[in-house]
Amino acid sequence: MAQELSEKDLLRMEVEQLQKEVKNSRAPISQTGKEIKDYVEAQAGNDPLLKGIPEDKNPFREKGTCMIS
């Protein structure tokens, strides 16, 4: 699609995109990083990768052994 557009059209699209992006609200990384850290720490108790899955609720546990007679 970009090959079909002239350079002027491409630049116009870029300017329109930049105008949209400049309207986005921004926060300092120090504040955002703290919020992310607090959220992750608050959710750590519910994270199955950190605390594991109970054996009776694990859908991937081995059901039994294979016996060939």
TrEMBL record:
<protein>
    <recommendedName>
        <fullName>Guanine nucleotide-binding protein subunit gamma</fullName>
    </recommendedName>
</protein>
<keyword id="KW-0807">Transducer</keyword>
<keyword id="KW-0488">Methylation</keyword>
<feature type="region of interest" description="Disordered">
    <location>
        <begin position="47"/>
        <end position="69"/>
    </location>
</feature>
<keyword id="KW-0636">Prenylation</keyword>
<dbReference type="InterPro" id="IPR036284">
    <property type="entry name" value="GGL_sf"/>
</dbReference>
<feature type="compositionally biased region" description="Basic and acidic residues">
    <location>
        <begin position="53"/>
        <end position="69"/>
    </location>
</feature>
<dbReference type="GO" id="GO:0003924">
    <property type="term" value="F:GTPase activity"/>
</dbReference>
<dbReference type="InterPro" id="IPR001770">
    <property type="entry name" value="G-protein_gamma"/>
</dbReference>
<dbReference type="GO" id="GO:0007186">
    <property type="term" value="P:G protein-coupled receptor signaling pathway"/>
</dbReference>
<dbReference type="GO" id="GO:0031681">
    <property type="term" value="F:G-protein beta-subunit binding"/>
</dbReference>
<dbReference type="Pfam" id="PF00631">
    <property type="entry name" value="G-gamma"/>
</dbReference>
<comment type="function">
    <text>Guanine nucleotide-binding proteins (G proteins) are involved as a modulator or transducer in various transmembrane signaling systems. The beta and gamma chains are required for the GTPase activity, for replacement of GDP by GTP, and for G protein-effector interaction.</text>
</comment>
<keyword id="KW-0449">Lipoprotein</keyword>
<keyword id="KW-1003">Cell membrane</keyword>
<dbReference type="InterPro" id="IPR015898">
    <property type="entry name" value="G-protein_gamma-like_dom"/>
</dbReference>
<comment type="subunit">
    <text>G proteins are composed of 3 units; alpha, beta and gamma.</text>
</comment>
<dbReference type="GO" id="GO:0005834">
    <property type="term" value="C:heterotrimeric G-protein complex"/>
</dbReference>
<comment type="similarity">
    <text>Belongs to the G protein gamma family.</text>
</comment>
<keyword id="KW-0472">Membrane</keyword>
<feature type="domain" description="G protein gamma">
    <location>
        <begin position="1"/>
        <end position="69"/>
    </location>
</feature>
